[in-house]
Specification:
The complex is a heterodimer of chains A (658) and B (202).
Chain A lengths: L1 H4 L14 H23 L3 H9 L4 H30 L9 H35 L8 H20 L27 H29 L12 H33 L12 H34 L7 H14 L15 H29 L8 H24 L1 H7 L3 H31 L5 H27 L16 H30 L39 H10 L12 E4 L4 H17 L3 H20 L5 E4 L1 H10 L5
Antiparallel strand pairs in A: 1-2
Chain B lengths: L1 H5 L11 H31 L9 H4 L2 H26 L3 H31 L8 H34 L3 H33 L1
Helix pairs in contact in B: 2-6, 2-7, 4-5, 4-7, 5-6, 6-7
Classes of the chains: A mainly alpha (658), B mainly alpha (202).
Bound molecules: protoporphyrin IX containing FE (HEM) and copper (II) ion.
């Protein structure tokens, strides 16, 4: 017992040292923490922080926190990317050594997918979905806070690996046996396993929450087939999350058992099967790439129809193709390891199922194009990003079909050609969707618009930079450059392409900086959104003020068809008299402290298991279970009513009739 | 029961509020995620079932007496848990408490047997680190056992709340949800029992 309680075995390096980058990280972490503490104390903001943010259950605020976190992670992942590109600018560079390079491509990939793309999209869902379906909040507001804080705990855990104990270095796919404890000892890979595990619980809860919200809480009259496309895509994504994430939970748990407790799931010794990891990982992993693309598809659909001033072309086909994609997404995972010897039959079948996905995807692309056809297209910044998405995604998709040809994939696999493919779909699809959605919903979130002029600069820097960066990768990939190599010899004909790619990467970085600068600039030179409907929108979220009151709608709107707000505006223009709606007291959930406390305990648990300090690990788990029980005993009177008078006051202040 | 639910407009207490309906629906969705979770574990078990690394296999280890008793305990507890909910619907606190406590005792009995089974295996040198088969066996059965333990904690905590507050729409909802969870664990056990233990000793 005593051995168990006081056994703090230390890894070889607890504090990582020896590299200027790392010292820089220490200094900046300490300085930023001190600055935050100082500002909060000096301006007496601690109570405010606790009441308004840490314990909030308002989906709009939770959405904002997700978006802030996602932008920070985009920055961190972007810095990783630039470091890699610097190292590869020319042959035989010594900017990073092999070990650092391994760590950086691992954290880059993991952060971009799990801690950037997912929270970015979930943040936009939080901001928009309840408004879009005419609801007052999500179905389980407290659980929504649990989702966010679990994600935050996981992300934080993953990020401190940089300075404490060392980063994971077996790739974002963490293939065994490379990621097993024999070949990769130390805490690094444990950070990957536990960071993702904790954040993954949050994602699963989000999936359940949004599924129930969308199925059960739509405004009266909004049948499923009158639902805007972003809501549809969120619904379908939620279903994929619910079926895919438990597989990740298990995969991570099993590898943790292998590494920390000496089990034999993936080790050849003891009869385990390293290939089982690849299967489990991609049974989750391929659906995961659709989890991050479908919501972006939904956002693009909203944006195309808004800025083309037209109903979306082929609404039903759009929904059916998303349903088809979601089903197929579970049936193609083997295409990630055609070369690992599954045999001709399996390869052929999975190759064909992969190519099938291109059909519903193609349907969607054509529908977007037909939505533009004869529309009165307005080239506002969200629309620019949406228009940029189409050709980029097309290239990404077509090269995807090339990769899906199993025999040919023996040539492309693990080359820069593959890297170029998935960046064309992930950046061109997901990141463009996130940025387009962020700019589109920005006024709804904060109440003022982003500057269009700067927005266009950001778009062009980013788009030109992107193509400069990744087209060369297709080419060097075909010229034989494999992924994850930290340096390369001269004379293979790769030099020029790599140089161009690095230049492109920096141009994208400039685009990102302009984007962020624009947020500050537009705040200083505020152009307020007084109407709540800056884009002449068609869906219900544009019917409330910007930002929406905490209860979203004083009176829940009645939906009469697709593009509900457009129909209402048409009636108004035609002079149809709306009866003054009767305002009733509004039922709201109270603040909750348990999500952030429980997640803090999970963070402690994760940290303990990372260093294999089991007593700390179990203590953290015990803490979070006790928090849950405590909350269960206090699960009474968790709501209150906003009186009519107060609602009226808020509505009048927002310039609405009551 | 049948006659009352058939009566027009009847709704059990846990379904009366919007919140109750949402939470129960959400819990069903959560259970479907749990099904995926256990399916994945079953899949890993069947991939690794013959990978005994020269060590013992299922037929050398599983004892019919023990797993038959475990099955008996858990299946009966599912029945008594159903009875507890029935008494709750009849607004009988006494009936609810009696059957809930019996359910808890049966659950505890199951757990004790499982812990005994595991410790005997470990003492025999057939612990989870011995072979891939044993890793998969311990993880699958242990995950179920962990769920049962959490279930016991949860049912107990709800029971205390009910004693303090009586049957209200909120406590009724909690009782109903713990019931769903308990039955779900029973269903998982039926699969464990038949595909791991029965096939294992066959
Ligand atoms: C037309 C649709 C698509 C097809 C046919 C397709 C096909 C493929 C194939 C066959 C591979 C494996 C190549 C190899 O490892 O050699 C692959 C990799 C990948 N794809 Fe796609 N893909 C498509 C769309 C997408 C989308 C929409 C995304 C994400 C938004 C995506 C993300 C990825 C990622 C992340 C990888 C690489 C994972 C890794 O090994 O690290 N793909 N794709
Ligand atoms: Cu895939």
């Amino acid at each position: 017992m005593k051995d168990f309680l006081f056994n703090f075995k230390m890894p070889e390096h607890f504090f990582i040292t020896g590299d200027p980058l790392i010292y820089g990280a220490y200094v900046s972490i300490i300085l930023v923490s001190l600055a935050i503490l100082f500002v909060l104390t000096y301006y007496k903001k601690w109570v405010w922080l606790w009441r308004e943010w840490l314990t909030t259950v308002d989906h709009k605020k939770i959405g904002i926190m997700y978006l802030v976190a996602a932008l920070l992670m985009l920055f961190r992942g972007g810095v990783d990317a630039l470091l890699m590109r610097i190292q590869l600018t020319a042959p035989n560079m010594h900017f990073l050594d092999a070990e650092h390079y391994n760590q950086i491509f691992t954290t880059h990939g993991t952060i971009m997918i799990l801690f950037m793309a997912m929270p970015f999209l979930i943040g936009l869902m939080n901001v928009a979905i309840p408004l879009q379906i005419g609801a007052r909040d999500v179905a389980f507001p407290a659980l929504n806070a649990v989702s966010f804080w679990m994600f935050a705990a996981g992300a934080m855990l993953f990020n401190i690996s940089f300075v404490l104990g060392g980063s994971p270095d077996a790739g974002w796919t963490s293939y065994t046996p490379l990621a097993g404890s024999a070949l990769d000892p130390g805490p690094g890979q444990n950070y990957y396993l536990l960071g993702l595990q904790i954040a993954g619980i949050g994602t699963l809860v989000t999936g359940i929450n949004f599924l129930v919200t969308i199925l059960k809480m739509r405004a009266p009259g909004m049948t499923l087939w009158r639902m805007p496309l972003f809501s549809w895509s969120t619904l379908i994504t939620s279903v994929i999350i619910i079926f895919a994430f438990p597989v990740l939970t298990i995969a991570l748990a099993l590898l943790t058992l292998d590494r920390v407790f000496g089990f034999h799931f993936f080790t050849l010794a003891g009869g385990g099967s390293p290939m089982m990891w690849a299967n489990l990982f991609w049974i989750w992993g391929h659906p995961e790439v659709y989890i991050v693309i479908l919501p972006a598809f939904g956002l693009f659909s909203e944006i195309f129809s808004t800025f083309a001033r037209k109903k979306l072309f082929g609404y039903n086909a759009m929904v059916y193709s998303m349903l088809a994609i979601s089903a197929l997404s579970f049936l193609v995972w083997v295409h990630h390891f055609f070369t690992m010897g599954s045999g001709p039959w399996i390869n052929s079948i999975l190759s064909i199922s992969t190519m099938l996905i291109a059909i519903p995807t193609g349907v969607k692309v054509f529908n977007w194009l037909f939505t533009l056809y004869k529309g009165r297209v307005e080239f506002k910044t969200p629309m620019l990003w949406a228009l940029g998405f189409i050709p980029i995604f097309l290239v990404g998709g077509i090269t995807g079909v090339m990769l899906a040809v199993a025999p040919a994939d023996y040539q492309y696999h693990n080359s820069y050609f593959l890297i170029a493919h998935f960046h064309y779909v992930l950046i061109g699809g997901t990141v463009y969707g996130c940025i387009a959605g962020l700019i589109y919903y920005w006024p709804k979130i904060v109440g003022w618009l982003l500057n269009e002029h700067l927005g266009k600069w950001a778009f062009w820097w980013f788009t030109i930079g992107f193509n400069l960066c990744f087209i060369p990768m297709y080419i060097v990939g075909l010229k034989g450059m494999t992924r994850r190599m930290y340096t390369y010899p001269a004379g293979l004909g790769w030099e020029t392409w790599n140089l161009i790619a690095t230049i492109g990467a920096f141009a994208m970085g400039i685009g990102f900086i302009i984007l962020v600068w624009n947020m500050y600039y537009s705040f200083k030179h505020r152009q307020n959104d007084t109407t709540g409907d800056p884009w002449n929108g068609r869906t219900l979220e544009w019917m409330t003020s910007s930002p929406a009151a905490e209860y979203n709608f004083a009176v829940i709107p009645q939906v009469k068809g697709l593009d509900a707000f457009y129909l209402i505006k048409k009636e108004r223009a035609a002079g149809v008299k709306e009866e003054a709606p009767e305002i009733k007291p509004i039922h709201m959930p109270k603040r909750e402290a348990f999500p952030v406390i429980m997640s803090a305990f999970m963070f402690v648990a994760g940290f303990g298991f990372v260093f294999e300090w089991l007593q700390i690990g179990f203590l953290g788990l015990l803490g979070s279970v006790i928090t849950m029980i405590w909350r269960s005993f206090n699960d009474y009177d968790r709501d209150y009513y906003i009186p009519v008078e107060e609602v009226k006051k808020t509505e009048l202040a927002a310039g609405r009739r009551v | 029961m049948e006659t009352t639910t058939a009566t027009k407009g009847y709704q059990p207490m846990e379904y009366k509020s919007e919140e109750g309906r949402l939470k129960i629906f959400g819990f069903w969705v959560f259970l479907s995620a749990e099904i995926v979770l256990f399916s994945t574990l079953f899949a890993t078990y069947f991939v690794l079932v013959h990978q005994t690394a020269g060590g013992p296999a299922g037929k050398d280890l599983f004892e019919v007496n023990i797993f038959a008793m475990e099955t008996f305990f858990l299946l009966t507890s599912s029945f008594t848990c159903g009875l507890a909910i029935l008494y709750m619907r009849k607004n009988s606190m006494k009936g609810y408490l009696i059957w809930t406590i019996i359910t808890l005792l049966l659950g505890l009995g199951f757990l004790i047997l499982e812990i005994k089974e595991f410790s005997t295996l470990v003492e025999m040198g057939a612990g989870p680190t011995h072979s891939a088969f044993l890793s998969a066996f311990f993880t699958l059965v242990g995950t179920h056992g962990l769920h049962v333990s959490l279930g016991i904690v949860w049912v107990t905590s709800v029971m205390i709340q009910v004693i303090k507050r009586g049957f209200t729409p909120v406590t009724a909802r909690k009782i109903f949800m713990t019931g769903l969870y308990w039955h779900f664990l029973d269903v998982v056990w039926i699969f464990l029992f038949s595909t791991i233990y029965l096939l294992g000793v066959a």
